[in-house]
Amino acid sequence: MNPFVPKKTISTTSLLSLLGGIGFGGFLGLELLEDQLYLRSLTFSGNQRVATTALHHMSNIHNSRSMLYFDPLKAEHNLESHPWIERAEIKSSWWDNIRGKVQIEITEQSPLMLVSLDRVWYSNEKGVIFREASTSELDYPILTGIPSNWALEYPDITQRIIKEAADILIKSSIPLIGGSSNLSEIHFDRQIGFSLVLKNGSEIVLGFYSVESRLERLQKMIDHDLNLDEPQRIELDADRVAIATPLEATPIKTSEPVSSQ
User: Fold this and answer.
1) pLDDT tens-digit profile of 184-196?
2) What predicted TM-score, i.e. pTM, was given to this entire model?
3) CA atoms of 32 and 38, how far apart (whole Å)
């Protein structure tokens, strides 16, 4: 190498021109790519109550906007704002989303019971109220007894009562008392706790005890010839003695004493 030959350097102008060319090329490439990445297909699964056309609208995913700007979390949030949708989940991959092939799985709410407050509401199995009940669909057990003003004045207590009632209904839906179809009402009383009301009018007082221990006690009463087909009030909230009182008669029939559960 000849040491007397001047070294070649890149001038500032040339460097800026190179960077500008790269930037312009990238911008042009992005523009061309953006023109290709539009929504091609949007499919939903799992929905029965909510129409697919309504889901398309609520998702706010349109074929007029490039999928480069697609936000899956926002689309899920938009869909979950519908009262009948418990969960929306984008199942398609990131690459499929970019290519405009979006698949969304819908999990709809399933009413467990009605809740009577200021109005009648649907609650799911988690004890979450999700919408006002429709007069055309009321064939569910109903939670009664919560003062209507508690929802606003004591929301945490109200939510706890609803959650506990949901848990009681789930655990009480057993053949011992005729299954879930034989449950008409669950009543809350701030003094005595929870009571189950069967379709024939029988009332089973559980109190504030665990439902499992009360149902064990009820089983012992049935083993001692208690007949649930006969309307009666069955008090299981005492510590040591369970009592069954026929609703159409005044005499009290006391069961065999059972040990505290």
Assistant:
1) 999 999 999 999 9
2) 0.77
3) 12
